[in-house]
Amino acid sequence: MASASLQFFAFILALFGVFGDIAATLLPNWKVNADVGSNIITAITQMQGLWMDCTWYSTGMFSCTLKYSILSLPVYIQAARTTMVLSCILSAFGICITTVGMKCTKLGGDTDSKNHACFAGGVCFILAGIFGLVPTCWYTREIISNFLDHTIPESSKHEPGGAVYTGFISAGFLLIAGVIFCSSCFKRQQGAWIYPPKQHHFPSTEQESNAGYNLKDYV
Asked: Domains (ranges, CATH) in the chain?
């Protein structure tokens, strides 16, 4: 019962991780630059994401521009696009597989099949967390290195936006959920290896009858 509750808790964490992963992939505020200038009325907030760049004015106007060209983008943005999409796909697969493998569901067949499905879902979550953690770390490193570079003007420097923090938290949720699912299945299999089921050997009736026949011959 405790293992089933722990798996359900891991499943909730994985759901938060999946939704956060998708939101971080689509949000345009991976890096933010606030240019107030001399007049607060004409303040501009520039946001750059993986798929679009947006500008928000203090007057309430909001405009976005899609990044159509792929080859013109920096390498870290191209890598972030690929890995974040892979993270979303793997986490979605993990949700489907662990739904079958959890103990609180009636899907998946016998206990061994459910354990294997649960372990496979945990591996998907761990891979999704790694794929989500790599681009956020790389993207944050590029932002910090550009911010500390004195040759870059102040107007071109940015700070990490909300999408980066969302990606970090989502990757952590997915990693924790994957470790919980894999460890719960591993403990069960390890117990089966340490304490194998006892096999009872019963003599066959044919041997008993043959033994009785031979005794009668010698009497």
From this structure: 4-27+71-194 (1.20.140.150)
pLDDT band at 106; cut points 50, 70, 90: confident
Q: Please, which residues have CB within 8 angstroms of residue 56's CB and are 6 or more apart in sequence?
A: 44, 45, 47, 62
Residue 206 has pLDDT above 80, yes or no: no
Nearest to 80 by CA among 21, 143, 131: 131
pTM: 0.78
For all residues of the chain together, what is the average pLDDT?
A: 80
Closest CA relative to residue 131, chosen from 175, 85, 170, 87: 87
Cα-based distances in Å from 150 to 130, 145, 209: 32, 10, 97
Among candidate residues 70, 87, 77, 73, the one with its CA nearest the CA of residue 139 = 77
